[in-house]
Specification:
six-stranded parallel beta sheet; globular; alpha/beta; 18% strand; Rossmann fold
Length: 373
């Protein structure tokens, strides 16, 4: 009879030698939509036949989030009696026994109830990854150990729950879930983030506009830095010539292209990297006057950021991007969240997936920036 703590080679839980893939959704503050985004992707994967379960979900009473979780199997939590209270935590053993392909785990920095097998939730996640399960998780920028003091200086709030930086560094993918400070303030005022009693207090403290701007900057910078460190490590390992980062931003006729372009320009400036912007024209489709103007605006903005604007004609957008990436030896590609409907994805396959396939062996990092719809 094996117990879950048994990690001997013949343990029933060891599925494969492969370590699971870890994708982290990171944001500048509560309420940006990390959990929502995680669930959205989970539904997409489930539709593609991936076996997904919820290991632990914190909806914080947010209706949209709770609704979004409908239809995904939830592993019941483990109850722990503590000084007359009944508290719940993720049942890691139950998740392992169920052995899905992908587990969703909210709030990576959470500290487990005293008396739990492991002290922190991220340690539970490590166990899942070691067993070969893929994990999607969420975290706010202020919970990263090395940024803790900086966040305290910016916001005056000392965050007690923290995760070691290596968790972020070891992740296979980090997605910045980004909204503008204005959008976040509006969500707060609409009562979508906290109960009414907490709104005013939040606006005066953590959610001050200048705090949000600084935290947002920090979230982006952190992801850019992680990528840069990886490139530096690569150089040290290969002792080759230095790896020069080159950033390519993919813009479309969607309004969020401007936001994306600024984003990419910032990432490029943090990395001291040349900056390229690509727009792919579909030869079978004429642009409307508004769309043409939009593309011109993108081009102007690209030049303001000292970037090179590339306009190519191709019916296959993903292939066009991959070809340009190869030609210009791009190391970072920035794309927006795809605006395809569920049906388009089903018929044509997801654009993001196709692009990832095409660049997989090319040592290119893909940044998927979630922008305001």
């Amino acid at each position: 009879m094996h117990h879950s703590s048994d990690c001997s080679p013949d343990s029933t839980y060891i599925r494969s030698a492969r370590r699971g893939k870890h994708k982290i959704f990171i944001g500048m503050a509560p309420g940006v939509g990390k959990t929502y985004k995680m669930l959205e992707e989970a539904h997409q994967l489930k539709a593609e036949g991936i076996d997904v379960v919820v290991g632990l979900l914190e909806t914080h009473g947010r209706k949209e989030t709770a609704d979004k979780a409908t239809g995904i199997e939830v592993i019941p939590r483990k109850t722990i009696a503590q000084a007359g209270l009944t508290l719940t935590e993720m049942d890691t053993d139950a998740v392992l026994a169920r052995s899905p392909q992908l587990v969703l785990v909210d709030e990576l920095a959470h500290t487990n109830v005293p008396g739990s097998v492991r002290e922190k939730r991220y340690q539970d996640v490590e166990v899942l990854l070691e067993t070969g399960l893929d994990v999607y998780s969420t975290i706010n920028i202020q919970h990263i150990e090395s940024l803790n003091d900086l966040v305290a200086r910016i916001t005056g709030v000392v965050v007690r729950e923290r995760i070691p930086d290596r968790i972020l560094e070891d992740a296979d993918q980090v997605v910045v879930v980004d909204v503008t400070p204005e959008t976040l303030e509006q969500r707060l005022l609409d009562g979508k983030i906290y109960a009414p009693t907490k709104i005013q207090q939040s606006l005066e403290n953590f959610f001050k506009r200048r705090n949000l701007i600084a935290l947002r900057e920090l979230a982006l910078r952190e992801v850019a830095d992680t990528v840069e460190e990886e490139a530096n490590e690569l150089t040290l390992r290969e002792q080759a010539c230095s790896v020069h980062e080159r950033v390519l931003v993919c813009v479309s006729t969607y309004p969020n292209a401007i936001q994306l372009l600024r984003r990419g320009a910032r990432i490029a400036s943090y990395m001291n990297a040349p900056f390229y912007v690509i727009f792919v024209d579909n030869p079978n489709r004429f642009l409307s006057k508004a769309e043409s103007l939009h593309v011109e605006t993108c081009e102007k903005l690209c030049h303001e950021f000292a970037g090179k604007f590339l306009r190519v004609s191709n019916t296959n957008v993903a292939e066009a991007i991959a070809a340009v990436a190869e030609q210009y030896r791009i190391t970072q590609i920035v794309i927006g969240e795809t605006q395809q409907s569920f049906w388009q994805k089903l018929i044509k396959g997801s654009f993001t997936q196709r692009l990832m396939e095409l660049i997989r062996r090319k040592h290119i990092d893909l940044h998927i920036i979630s922008t305001d719809k």
